[in-house]
């Protein structure tokens, strides 16, 4: 299972950089990295858009934000860290 809203990074490896000459979607989560490849360009574009949208970070509500490992919205976690340090 992949917790999309806990991903640390979502990136694309271009087709020129892969041995099979297809783009790869790279999902980095704590402790593991997943490489996804679509059957074709349209499949890859659809997966990239869907996963990027589901990963969060684009909404205005806290429930729509990207989460830390403890299921705390990143923005709340950053605020707590700032207040604790100052």
TrEMBL record:
GO terms for cellular component: cytoplasm. One of its GO terms (molecular function) is phosphatidylinositol-3,4,5-trisphosphate binding. It comes from the Eukaryota. InterPro entries: Arf-Rho-GAP_ANK-PH_domain (IPR052227). This is PH domain-containing protein. It comes from Neotoma lepida (Desert woodrat).
């Amino acid at each position: 299972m992949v917790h999309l809203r806990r991903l640390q990074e979502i990136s694309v490896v271009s087709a020129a950089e892969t041995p099979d000459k297809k783009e790869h979607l790279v999902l980095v989560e704590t402790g593991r990295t997943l490489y996804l490849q679509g059957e074709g360009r349209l499949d890859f574009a659809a997966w990239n858009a869907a996963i990027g949208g589901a990963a969060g970070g684009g909404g205005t509500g806290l429930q729509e934000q990207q989460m830390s490992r403890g299921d705390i919205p990143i923005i709340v976690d950053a605020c707590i860290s700032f207040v604790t340090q100052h």
